[in-house]
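User: I'm new to structure prediction. If I give you an amino acid sequence, what do you actually give back? Let's try with this one:
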Amino acid sequence: MSDNKMNDNMNDNSAKHNNSVSLQYSARHVAIEVITNILLQQGSLSTQLARYQNEVASEHLPMLKELCFGVCRQYPKLNSIALHLLAHPFEEKDTDLYAALLLGLYQLTYMNTPDHAAVHETVEACRLLKKDWATKLMNAVLRRYQREVDEIEVALGSMPSVEYNQPKWLLKRFNKHWPEQLERIVDASNMHPPMCLRVNQSQVSRETYQILLKEQGIDSTAGTFSPSSLYLEKAVRVTELPHFGMGYVSVQDEAAQLSAHILAPKAGDKILDACAAPGGKTGHLLEVADGIRLTAVELEPWRMEKIESNLDRLGYSNDATLLCADASDLDAWWDGEHFDKILLDVPCTATGVIRRNPDIKINRKPADIDDLVVVQQAILDSVWTTLKPGGFMLYVTCSLMPEENEQQIQRFLARQNDAQEILLNTLAPELAIEWGTPVSHGRQLFPTLESHDGFYYCLLQKN
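Assistant: Good question. You get back a string of structure tokens that encode the predicted 3D arrangement of the chain. For your 463 residues, that looks like this:
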């Protein structure tokens, strides 16, 4: 279904049911659209929510996000239950019905929605989708689940995808590469992530900002590894954060904050931030040092808009050169002047940040790893040529897959005789590298329940 046709359907449904359907129900109907598109591999959860969130009133956005994030986060278990209940899987043209069923099962299992309301809303969704023929089927399936929930949990409980709530193939990869960390990875990946802030220390100290938070009734704890990090006891809207609009603080995971501290930019440094969206690390580099010459490259125009928005809020709109191009295509963007330092946060499987992007449980496939490894290699080899002799490149992913991390670096070092790996605190000796696990090249961080996400870091120098 094309984007225009999808939007037309949404507007048509909104118009027809505006007077008879509650806003909460409207949010549920939009959730069906979002989940359907994810199931059909038509975009990520973040892009789908950005496209459709204006279809519901602002006060019901939390409901929309709860439904969409919840179904994606619990998808392996919900999918197993749904397939167990259905005599025959829905055809692709009825993926919207399957999305409605998953939402109904999520409400019955994980939300406080009264059972009768969850069933009724799911049945009514069939009518809104103009598939009245499915109302009896949907009602029968959900009623059966209510009656047999205990027996179904016992029957499916031994399935790894249900027990661990992860795709079977991904669970096998985790167990193969990180058997000792498996439980920790799974537990953290299935939980809501903590809200971590990055204090703009060019404007305010971390200690002072903690006081500002406390004055607003917001409790926080200083992060252990990044000197700019603060964890909130409870998540809040960014509009509730003191001076957020003035750039005092940004929302960024603590592991992601390590990039700028490792590169330790200094005045006069010419720095490249390749694959820069959404701009969190770009802004952090500018916060850490005045007088740097920063170039940020990003392939997608809509993602470039996010970088522009972030830099504008931080007050750095005129302090970076933004180029919309493929980082591996040097002819499209490089002027021939070499960089002192490069931050290369390459596209990856994002298996270290599943809790923030739970649609990975639906969209990611084993073949994606091989495809991304090829993309990463192309970017690595191309961007390396833009680094001056003696310069430094920080290779970063939010992946837990060795193929994208230490093995990628091993192959790179074998190809490039002018590259060598160096200690991560070479540029910032005061930085205590007490985080993560040392691997054959670089360090691997694993997602933790109350702290940082899963990231990989390796610092390289050109001989």
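You can read the tokens as a compact description of the fold. Here is one thing that stands out. The chain has 18 helices and 13 strands.
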